[in-house]
């Protein structure tokens, strides 16, 4: 449509020019000695237009010829840029898809061929990332060095190189080297949030609790970290800070926490332990009571029940209030039992401990019952509960199916004199078998007397013999032979006859 409009405009202009020239029939005389040129006005106008157009196109042609080298260089640059962009795109796609070998080839090719500083740094960092994921750290460091050289004095490119390098160092747990690169990037306004996150990661690896706490708070205010993860970091760093805090620094650490953070089980446990260490059991109880009012935790309950008789009564009242809303909590029942033991309320303590034991059997409850029966003068029941506590401490302990028989020492002349001196009276019935000098005995859970696992059959006493003088070594060690063991196969079998 536009072409038709322009065609009509040209035709209209031609018709108008023809009409104008028709009404003007004058002549144009050009005198240039020795020539004299006379033209009609219409022809002179047409020739002038043609000359103008010819001169215009001639000048444009000369300008095109003069700028040909620059245009050729620009064309080559555009072609090189297109090739670099294609290599960079293909390399990054391979990195994202996990084809690191092909990605490294494309990016290394781009690194050696490109003349652009930006693309050289990008290619170097991308190739270093691919080599890092391949585990080739030596080549990765070489490529990072090339990228750093390509960055030159450009602060923006140097920051990019330092950030990527620090992130790779953190993947290798080289936190100290990463800190050297990241610390200069941390500005006062903290606009470099990714660098701040990497800095937080480095301080976590090094165990710098104070810096972890500060950086987590900063990222949480900026909304640059997941809230759940931030709460976990604050919890961990606070526990570490509290473990080292002294009396003078308690207010600064504890006062900086929010009310919700103080009720966290881990934080409350650490805070209560600090107060106990500093000699403030009442403040420790207050911290534990606030946390336990929110959630019953066995660790807090066990620490809360660990007190002397002067505090047991008050704590017992708080625990009984919690029992109304948690009647079947085994940890709370065990804590009540322990508090009753501290207050010497033996019957009530046994009641709570038996209720807790019916819900959950563990080492702590059995040990408390053992202490209770021991205080009441019931050694059999105390021993039984302590044994059960040991068994509950390691339910995965393998059961020994077979035991070595005890050593038979009745043929040893050193023991015959002792046996003859301790002969039983005629009215006493001797045992069918004598106890071994060293044996293994077991006692069942009902508290019966110990019985030997195995005893050798009776044998006639050996003829009396005069014992030889014994050395100090023979006086100490049991020289009786072990049944079923070939002593000739031992390391000193050649010395035994």
From TrEMBL:
Membrane topology, from the record: Multi-pass membrane protein
Entry keyword Transmembrane helix: yes
Pathway per the UniProt entry: Porphyrin-containing compound metabolism; protoheme biosynthesis
Organism for this UniProt entry: Castellaniella hirudinis
Subcellular location: Cell inner membrane
The UniProt record lists the keyword Cell membrane: yes
Role description: Involved in a late step of protoheme IX synthesis.
Name this protein carries in UniProt: Heme biosynthesis HemY N-terminal domain-containing protein
Biased composition, class Polar residues, residue ranges: 487-497
Region (Disordered): 448-497
């Amino acid at each position: 449509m536009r072409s038709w409009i322009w065609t009509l405009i040209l035709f209209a202009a031609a018709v108008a020019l023809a009409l104008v020239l028709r009404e003007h029939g004058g002549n144009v005389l050009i005198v240039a000695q020795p020539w004299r040129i006379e033209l009609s006005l219409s022809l002179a106008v047409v020739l002038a237009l043609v000359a103008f157009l010819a001169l215009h196109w001639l000048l444009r042609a000369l300008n095109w010829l003069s700028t040909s080298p620059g245009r050729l260089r620009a064309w080559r640059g555009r072609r090189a840029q297109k090739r670099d962009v294609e290599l960079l795109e293909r390399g990054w796609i391979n990195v994202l898809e996990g084809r690191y070998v092909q990605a490294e080839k494309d990016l290394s090719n781009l690194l050696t061929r490109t003349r652009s500083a930006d693309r050289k740094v990008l290619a170097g960092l991308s190739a270093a990332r691919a080599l890092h994921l391949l585990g080739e750290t030596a080549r990765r460091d070489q490529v990072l060095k090339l990228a750093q050289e390509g960055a030159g004095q450009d602060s923006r490119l140097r920051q990019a190189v330092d950030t990527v390098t620090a992130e790779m160092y953190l993947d290798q747990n080289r936190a100290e080297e990463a800190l050297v690169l990241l610390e200069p990037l941390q500005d006062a306004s903290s606009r470099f949030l990714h660098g701040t996150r990497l800095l937080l990661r480095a301080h976590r690896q090094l165990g710098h609790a104070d810096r972890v706490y500060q950086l987590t708070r900063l990222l949480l205010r900026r909304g640059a970290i997941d809230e759940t993860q931030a709460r976990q970091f604050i919890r961990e760093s606070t526990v570490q800070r509290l473990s080292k805090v002294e009396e003078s620094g308690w207010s600064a650490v504890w006062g900086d926490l929010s009310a919700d953070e103080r009720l966290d089980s881990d934080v409350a446990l650490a805070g209560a332990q600090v107060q106990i260490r500093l000699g403030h059991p009442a403040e420790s109880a207050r911290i534990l009571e606030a946390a336990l009012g929110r959630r019953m935790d066995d660790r807090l309950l066990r620490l809360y029940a660990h007190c002397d008789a002067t505090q047991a009564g008050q704590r017992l009242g708080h625990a009984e209030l919690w029992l109304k809303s948690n009647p079947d909590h085994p940890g709370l029942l065990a804590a009540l039992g322990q508090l009753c033991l501290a207050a010497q309320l033996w019957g009530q303590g046994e009641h709570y401990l038996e209720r807790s034991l019916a819900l959950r059997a563990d080492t702590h409850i059995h040990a408390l019952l053992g202490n209770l029966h021991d205080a009441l003068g019931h050694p059999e029941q105390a021993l039984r509960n302590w044994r059960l506590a040991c068994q509950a401490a390691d339910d995965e302990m393998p059961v020994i199916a077979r035991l070595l028989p005890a050593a038979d020492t009745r043929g040893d002349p050193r023991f015959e004199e002792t046996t003859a001196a301790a002969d039983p009276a005629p009215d006493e019935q001797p045992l069918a078998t004598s106890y071994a000098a060293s044996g293994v005995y077991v006692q069942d859970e009902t508290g019966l007397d110990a019985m030997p696992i195995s005893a050798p059959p009776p044998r006639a006493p050996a003829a009396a013999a005069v014992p030889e003088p014994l050395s100090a070594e023979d006086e100490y060690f049991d020289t009786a032979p072990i049944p079923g063991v070939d002593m000739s196969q031992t390391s000193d079998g050649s010395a035994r006859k």
